[in-house]
Design goal:
- 36% of the residues lie in helices and 23% in strands.
- The chain is an alpha+beta fold.
- The strands form 5 sheets. Strands 13, 14, 15, 16, 17, 18, 19 and 20 form an 8-stranded antiparallel β-sheet that branches. Strands 1-5-6-7-8-10-9 form a 7-stranded mixed β-sheet. Strands 4-3-2-11-12 form a 5-stranded mixed β-sheet, with no helix packed on it.
- Strand 21 and strand 22 form a beta hairpin.
- The protein is elongated and about 95 Å long.
- GO terms for molecular function: hydrolase activity.
- Pfam families: Ig_TMM62, Metallophos, TMEM62_C.
- InterPro entries: Calcineurin-like_PHP, Ig_TMM62, Metallo-depent_PP-like, TMEM62_C.
- This is Metallophosphoesterase At3g03305.
Length: 732
């Protein structure tokens, strides 16, 4: 008996050690050779500069209208806006087939991008050198390594054509006293795994060190006031930690980055994905910790929403407005007049805690972008504590240091009049009249002359997508599921072992049934019955243990991970294992936590319900077996046990009790329909499993997936074996 017990205690020890060792594996990223900084600088007049950001173009051979709209809508807009920089923050091409079931690089899409940018430069008059583009995850789908024949970014991107080959681009707008720094980061995964397991940004230690060094350089720049904005493709919520666990948030806060702007999530999750990061930085033991903040603003996609962002820096204060192109905005003269108030900033989503105390600014600044000459610009201040009554009207004039090419309007006011304990008491709105007599108004916005941040509340969906750190959440969801399976498989088996060792199992069942009240039995008896009887499945239980161990340490499936005709790679719970091109070396742990799009659905929707349903089938068989024995009757009522005192309900209630005879929970335990409900649930699980496998076959190749037994064949075989093993008792 002792040797038999050791047989199934050994898998428990191995299971725990496997879980611990798997969780300690580090995501190894190769390819840090490009982690250096390329610098460029441009002159800036005055203290106000603005840039345009566009993201997630997803240019596609199957949707040419996306590129056509860039030329017909964005180019005329740029001619009116005349930005200092044009920032394209990733997902330049779609890299998907027509049915959107598989990912691969298509050179025609990159040629389309190059031709589109040539047309935009020609029609908008923008300087090509002021265009900066970076990769997104779609631009790295199916690119085994940088420089591979399928890596089209170095050939067709604007940045690569201008010899910007590093993963960090440092752009400085240099004024007389102020410097505005924009830093672009390429955090795409080094080995371009195909979707759906290529979703996160993957910074390296070397890249973070290079970025921090560049930020430190500008911190120490002599004799200048510097404002910094970082742009990238991936939000912080979808950016993994580096090999040593470093994160960008601490770096940005420590070096006074004003804002991080990004794309990736598209407008389908919301057009106001904004987040104020608050970071507490440790100092020496004698001083309290320092709290610093920076904003993160995601811009909606061009693909479906046709959104762009105009972002301005005014004497160090960062503000922005998002502009959505409608169908009518196709020609230069149809460009809708757009107003961006650069100061004071919106207290809800632009202000942050500042460590320095500066005097109040007694000015109002607004940028007015219009295809028509502007006749009049007026600012109005409203008091929300007095039912939004207008308290001041201020005319704005063209700024004295603003030439014809700078649509900056300016006015002086007494900021002391608007001191308030509330960051949202006073609201500002700017009204513009153009040469055709048309009046345009900006969106009203609260402001705080003291720079106090107001309260901004995201929706629950925006909070889940944009504020939850998904690499940490993935580990929590994964290992909580593994822990549940460990307890679910082993705890009932332990109970079985100790009770059978003392020959007390049948006594326990009958004693609990006879002595327990109905409500007590409902609360724990049937749960214990289900767990105990479900685990008494013999070899099938042991096979499930082996299967869970397999999923923890061995490959789930094989497939073409990096290209449609590339080498076969294996996907493990710890990530992809891919062979280095032209070498016998292997790269491990790629695509963590990106593979959560595969592992979590499979574990939560297939493996876990599969094991629960197998337990259900065996528990149902045991119940029917107990009912079918000679001293148990259950045909017309609850379980009855023949005793020396006559027929007695196992619940302890006399058989003539109409309340117990009609009790549905006891009667249904022996009802045949429960097995059909379980079988229907099994069919649902098989259908879900089939859809997951089909999606992976389309993504990584049908042949390799079909020959992967752990993923493809194990779940239906387990359910079929459980159905076969429990069929005979039911037919008696």
């Amino acid at each position: 008996m002792a040797s038999k017990s050791l047989l199934w205690f050994l898998p428990l020890l191995f299971l725990l050690s496997s879980a611990i060792s798997s969780s300690m594996e580090i995501n190894s990223e190769a390819g840090g050779d490009r982690d250096y900084v390329t610098r460029e600088s441009f002159p800036m007049d005055g203290d106000v500069a603005w840039v345009v950001q566009v993201s997630d173009l997803h240019l596609s051979a199957f949707h040419p209208e996306r590129a056509e709209d860039l030329v017909s809508r964005l180019a005329p807009a740029l001619r009116v806006i005349r930005p200092s920089l044009l920032l394209i923050t990733g997902d330049i091409t779609d890299a998907k087939n027509k049915r959107r079931t598989s990912t691969r690089q298509d050179e025609t899409e990159w040629i389309q991008y190059r031709n589109t940018m040539d047309a935009i430069v020609r029609l908008s008059g923008i300087d090509r050198r002021t265009i900066f583009d970076i990769r997104g995850n779609h631009d790295k789908y199916g690119v085994p390594y940088v420089g591979h024949k399928l890596d089209f970014f170095p050939t067709y991107s604007v940045s690569s054509q201008l010899n910007r080959t590093g993963t960090i681009q440092s752009i400085s707008l240099l004024g007389r006293e102020r410097k505005y720094i924009f830093m672009g980061i390429d955090d795409t995964i080094s080995t371009g795994i195909r979707g759906p397991s290529n979703l996160f940004g993957h910074p390296t230690n070397k890249r973070m060190d290079a970025l921090e060094s560049e930020l430190q350089y500008w911190d120490n720049y002599p004799g200048s006031l510097v404002a910094k904005v970082v742009f990238g493709h991936f939000p912080m919520s979808f950016t993994a930690s580096s090999e040593e666990g470093k994160r960008y948030e601490n770096i940005f806060a420590n070096h006074y980055v004003s804002a991080y702007i990004c794309g990736h999530l598209h407008a389908k999750f919301g057009k106001q994905l904004w987040r104020l990061h608050t970071v507490e930085l440790t100092s020496n033991a004698k001083e309290p910790n320092i709290v610093k903040q920076f904003w993160e603003w995601e811009v909606g996609d061009w693909k479906d929403s046709r959104l762009i962002r105009i972002l301005a820096i005014d004497a160090g204060e960062v503000s922005f407005i998002d502009f959505e192109f409608l169908d009518k905005h196709k020609l230069l003269e149809d460009f809708e007049t757009t107003i961006l108030i650069t100061y004071p900033t919106d207290s809800r989503n632009m202000n942050r805690i500042k460590t320095d105390s500066l005097p109040f600014r007694n000015d109002i600044n607004a940028l007015v972008f219009s295809a028509q000459p502007i006749i009049n610009v007026t600012a109005k201040v409203f008091d929300s504590f007095r039912d939004f009554k207008m308290v001041e009207e201020i005319p704005l004039e063209v700024a004295t240091n603003s030439g014809a090419q700078k649509p900056l309007f300016h006015a002086k006011w007494n900021a002391e009049n608007y001191r308030s304990v509330s960051a949202t008491r006073y609201w500002l709105q700017v009204f513009v009249i153009d040469s055709q007599g048309k009046e345009i108004a900006s969106q009203p916005r609260p402001f705080s002359v003291e720079g106090k941040p107001g309260h901004y509340q995201n929706t629950w969906l925006a909070h889940l997508i944009f504020e939850v750190q998904w690499d940490n959440l993935y580990l929590i969801l994964l290992w909580s599921n593994v822990a549940f399976l460990i307890i679910f498989l082993f705890l009932p088996k332990l109970l079985n072992y100790f009770m059978e060792r003392n020959a007390s199992y049948q006594k326990w069942v009958m004693s609990v049934s006879v002595s327990s009240h109905t409500q007590q039995r409902k609360s724990y008896f049937w749960v214990l019955w289900f767990l105990t009887e479900g685990s008494r499945s013999g070899m099938l239980w042991f096979a499930m243990i082996i299967y869970v161990l397999y999923l923890l340490k061995l490959p789930w499936f094989w497939g073409h991970a990096t290209s449609e005709d590339g080498d076969i790679a294996g996907m493990y719970l710890s990530g992809w294992r891919i062979q280095v091109p032209n070498s016998s070396m292997m790269i491990d742990n790629l695509g963590i936590p990106d593979i959560f799009t595969i592992t979590l659905p499979f574990m939560y929707l297939v493996v876990t319900p599969m094991i629960i349903l197998i337990y259900s089938l065996f528990a149902k068989r045991s119940a029917v077996y107990l009912c079918s024995r000679g001293n148990i009757r259950c045909s017309n009522g609850p379980l009855l046990m023949e005793s020396e005192q006559g027929s007695q309900d196992v619940s302890g209630v006399p058989t003539n009790s109409s309340e117990d005879i009609n009790h549905p929970s006891v009667y249904k335990t022996c009802g045949g329909w429960t097995r059909w409900v379980i079988l229907l649930a099994c069919l649902v699980i098989i259908l879900i499993h089939f859809k997951l496998c089909c999606a992976l076959m389309l993504a990584y190749g049908g042949g390799p997936i079909a020959l992967s037994p752990a993923l493809m064949w194990a779940p239906p075989l387990f359910l079929a074996a459980a159905f076969y093993s429990t069929r005979t008792i039911v037919n008696q």
